[in-house]
Structure of Putative tricarboxylic transport membrane protein:
Amino acid sequence: MPRRQVIAALGIVLVAALAVTAFADAARSGEGQAARSNLTMIAPAAAGGGWDLVAREAQQAMRTGNVVNTVQVVNIPGAGGTIGLNQLAGLAGEETTMMVTGTVMLGGISQAGSELSLEDTTPIARLAEDFEVIAVPADSPFRTLEDFLTAWRADPAGLPVGGGSAGGIDHMVAAQLARARDVPVPDMVYTPHPGGGELTLSLLSTASGTVGVGISGYNDFRDLVEAGQLRVLGVVAPERLEGVDAPTMTELGLPEVDLVNWRGLVAPAGITPEERAELEQIARELVGTESWSEAIERNRWVRSEAYGEEFDRFLVAEQRRIDDLLKELGLA
């Protein structure tokens, strides 16, 4: 392995190790205390991404709404969220910890062939839906999504598309777009990035190896879109996003491109029914705060709340759907 790759790999291992240590310390600080007193929220990704945003918004809502006294957010990045999932699995019976999860983790589980799944957690709540967008630099020659798709079909290898982790929702949306416009998925060049920040840097760079088209959650691009540096070509949502001047996939004649990135919370396995009920109540109070309502509006999310058996059934069906979709798209 080249020296540069060795250094990068060691860096990733070191970051993961430090995150795990911080997480263990945070979990220990909550021992013997009820979740109302001291709650640890795991964001299974680096700071600045979608899961981190949900965790920070939830932290703020629980603090300002007097739902929980102390809320700590711990980032455990890597492998489509499955490193965080593995850490959560080691906390069986710990009722003062919850982890943010969603569609990306289901893809990570399927891609990694993980022995663990969300069935090895205690589901707490589905909170909201977050929507994907396809974006390009403001000076891109692609003025519409159809402009890009036409050029992509003519030369798929020459137009790499950037997004988050391999097998995640960004990758699946890219594959759905390819299939919808007869671009052979195996010919598609997809460039994964560890977070939204790295993806936007790539989009704005003209250096070799960077990408000219990116797919991610709207909030990863929001600041640069509002600053006029990026332009949204289309949104993967049932309706237009308020304040975003871009058509939906249905408007563009691509209703089969339809993946939605839901956001939810799970706790470790092995907690008691009473402890699960308390965490569900915390989630219900969280989404009832003014701060969370402001977060929903600010981030262009849509409320999509589910608890108990309804959320249990949703997770089982959603994992099966993602598994099947990844196989159908040739990504698993």
Remarks:
- Residues 3-29 form the longest helix (27 residues).
- Residues 203 and 212 are 5 Å apart (CA to CA).
